[in-house]
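For reproducibility, we list the full input for the flavin-adenine dinucleotide complex.
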Amino acid sequence: MKRTPKVIIVGAGLGGLECGYLLSRHGMDVCVLEQGAQVGGCLQSFRRHGLQFDTGFHYVGGMGEGEILHQLFSEFRLTGLPWVKLDTECFDEVFLDGEHYAFANGYDRFADELSKKFPQQRPHIAEYVNMLRRSQSALLSQGGAADSTSETLLATSAYQYLQECIPDERLRKVLSATSLKMDLRADTLPLYIFAQINGTFVQSAWRLRGGGQVIADTIADGIRTHGGQVRTRTRVTGIHVNEGSIDHVILNDNEIIPCDLVISDIHPNALFPLLEEGSLRKRYVQRISSLENSFGVFTVQLLLKEGAVRYRNRNIFIHNHAKIWHSETWDDRQNGTSIGVHFSVPTDGSEYTRNIDLFMPMSWQEVAPWTGTRPTQRGNDYDEFKQRNAEAAISAVLPYIPDIQGNIEKIIVSTPLTYRDYTHTFEGSAYGICKDYDHLISTMLPIRTPIPNLFLTGQNVNFHGVLGVTVTAKMTCGQVISALPMLS
Ligand SMILES: Cc1cc2nc3c(=O)[nH]c(=O)nc-3n(C[C@H](O)[C@H](O)[C@H](O)COP(=O)(O)OP(=O)(O)OC[C@H]3O[C@@H](n4cnc5c(N)ncnc54)[C@H](O)[C@@H]3O)c2cc1C
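The corresponding predicted structure, in tokenized form, follows.
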């Protein structure tokens, strides 16, 4: 391929943008196509009542100098953004049936803090923390790619590991209580995902003033600076395969863009219908389409009166639920709730926040009666469902954040249906395809597909979250670059 290869990226989620950035910097002719009005996918923000709200993003780990996300983000020039380090002595605060526990930053401080609450468990906590350390060194040494340590942790059940390593049931619950950022399925979750996510947050935890949109916009600007294109309100409606290779994509207004290769940052179940029937073997499509997806979320975003509610530089996790694992049973709201509480960094430097997000896992089944509806036309029973759950969430957090009482100006509620219709995640799933330690080969999707010039990226492929998606984007670009000579 003598001329500059034309790369089309479907979807401007974090993974699509990162691939666009790396490949445009590498000199390729990149065009990122996004059907939404804004770039960012799950990272995007929206404005309501004069204020900016995040659709999903709350915090990241490992942004301290020399830590994994800091190293990766320096490539995208994201380290200079207004990151705010959460309180070192307690970045996450857990309330389990009313009892309080602090997660402190730094492996030793984290272990010491928990050992004060569970003195008999000190050696077990040390063993757990060593496992987190090992998973982080594996990540760092391989730049995110799997090595023998990560492969072993991937093939181990996170639930089983905790059962064996931590004899105290309450401590097991505490260690898992901040993990609403993954699907805590006892029968499938690989230890590596649990360790990789928890380990980076134990290292250091950060919010971003301005929210996730700042990340997405900064990367999109970088692509344009490298000469690439980022087009919003542009939906890919077809991908044309000629003699086994993609030769062009078709857009919603019937525009045709010829290309040399395509990277898909969308869920495979949204990708397959874009390809003509027969482009991929039925068995490949059926196998991937049948994989399970993570839960969605029910979010209650509170717009607060000015100068009324003190900003907390930590997250709060409240569990009044019998089960922290077995996330597939969390819809049983009669038996309690699991809620993450996230405070927005004040943009004006004040000590009061204007926005708190309450975040609860919710399955697609819970919104099943309304899946055939569109926004604003879902009916009164849907509005009642939202109101009932929003009131329950607010009552559950009130004892822990009493200053919200009387200071809520407006409430914005989202369900998995909202995410499906606005961020276009498959069935509103928050974290994409669930990985299974016992079926790694079938649940960790390869970046390469049977079509030689079609590549995958994004949270469905490998790991979810800002860190996981960034690691995958780098791997996707590596595969694209090494495949180029074969594609010419
Ligand atoms: C509620 C919520 C909270 C979260 N909180 C955090 C957090 O605090 N920290 C963290 O690290 N991670 C968090 N995550 C996870 C993280 O946001 C995601 O893992 C990551 O952003 C996913 O990026 P992605 O590249 O896979 O694509 P996505 O974000 O899924 O983006 C895909 C994009 O493709 C577009 N698209 C789809 N079909 C087409 C088409 N046919 N043509 C053109 N465009 C198309 C969509 O509109 C979308 O913009 C959260 C996720 C959710 C849902």
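The first strand starts at residue 6 and ends at 10. The pocket of flavin-adenine dinucleotide is lined by residues 10-16, 33-36, 41-43, 56-60, 235-236, 265-266, 270, 297, 419, 423-425, 430, 458-459, 464-466, 469 (CB under 6 Å). Both points were considered when choosing residues for closer inspection.
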